[in-house]
Amino acid sequence: MKDDFDGVAGNVRRPLPPPTWVLPEEDFEDALASRPAWSAPEADDEPPELTSAGAFGDDRKLGIRAFDPGRRGVRALAAVAAVAIVVAALLAWRARPRVDPVAPPSFDSVATTPAVSPGRSGPSSAVAEVVVAVGGKVRKPGLVRLPPGARVADALTAAGGAAPGVDVALLNLARKVVDGELIMVGVTPPPGVTTAPAPPGAGGTASAAAGPINLNTATLADLDTLPGVGPVLAQRILDARDSQGGFRAVSDLRKVDGIGDARYEQLKDLVTV
User: Fold this and answer.
1) What secondary structure does DSSP assign to 31-86, as a single string?
2) How far, in Å, CA of 267 to CA of 53, rounded?
């Protein structure tokens, strides 16, 4: 082991032969003499100077000073920045979304609707036809549609006419019908059935506004609307009508107990048969 180590150490201490690329001194001088003319240095050439680290530091300081704007430059830069900010703010303000105002409608283009008084009906409520109910002893009882201004005779004809043997003398065939009216032919309507509806808001003068009340078809409520006629007197009129088979003339009211000359004069224009 030791012998091997000594052998290796001996090889390390042995000097290495000179490199083959190093020229001997005499060959080096011959090489310099035989070099081309363009590679030889001129006589006035000076060797390059070495620059110290301090010189680089001075040059760096000079570069920083070259870009120093000074107080006036700082003020100018601040002014330019302020102008740029103002311009950017104006551009942002002009680019904001806008809401276009809506012009108010012209009064000339607004359609005005004429006011309708409570007691009158407007154009939209104009009656194009009258619908009445015809019942009793007729050929075709039910609803009939008549033009405005039609009379009881027209309603009776639209219902097919009265049944054979029915006396229509008790009906006032010349009376104008009212929309929603019930016309009973040959029979007395049961109590509580209204033949001719009273207009709303008419009060005690409903019978006058709707036309004369037919004594032969009127109900207790219809007679109660007549001036000076209460429930008691209205029931007496109904009893007299039933006992004599209907009224043949308005003057038959004189036969009713409780109706004198003065009250008859008050009622004769408000009733019919």
Assistant:
1) HHHTS-GGGSPPTT--PPPPPPHHHHHHHHHHHHHHT--HHHHHHHHHHHHHHHHH
2) 140
Q: Is-contact 186 137, C-beta < 8 A?
A: yes
CA angle (150 as vertex; 144, 156 as ends), nearest 5: 50
Quick: pLDDT tens for 168-190. 876 788 888 888 888 888 876 65
Spatial distance between the Cα atoms of 115 and 122, rounded to a whole number of angstroms: 8
Percent helix, percent strand, percent coil in the chain, to nearest 5: 40, 10, 50
DSSP state of 22: S
pLDDT digits 0-9 by tens, 88-106: 988 888 887 766 666 665 5
Q: How far apart are CA 103 and CA 106, in angstroms?
A: 9
Kindly list the domain boundaries of the chain, sorted by start residue: 128-187, 203-273
Q: How far is residue 254's CA from residue 273's CA, in Å, rounded to a whole number?
A: 14
Residue 145 pairs in a beta bridge with 131
Q: Which CATH architecture has domain 203-273?
A: Orthogonal Bundle (1.10)
Q: 208 — phi, psi (to 5°)?
A: -70, -35
Q: Which residues of 208-222 are buried (b: 16+ CB within 10 A; e: fewer)?
A: eebbbbbbbbbbeeb
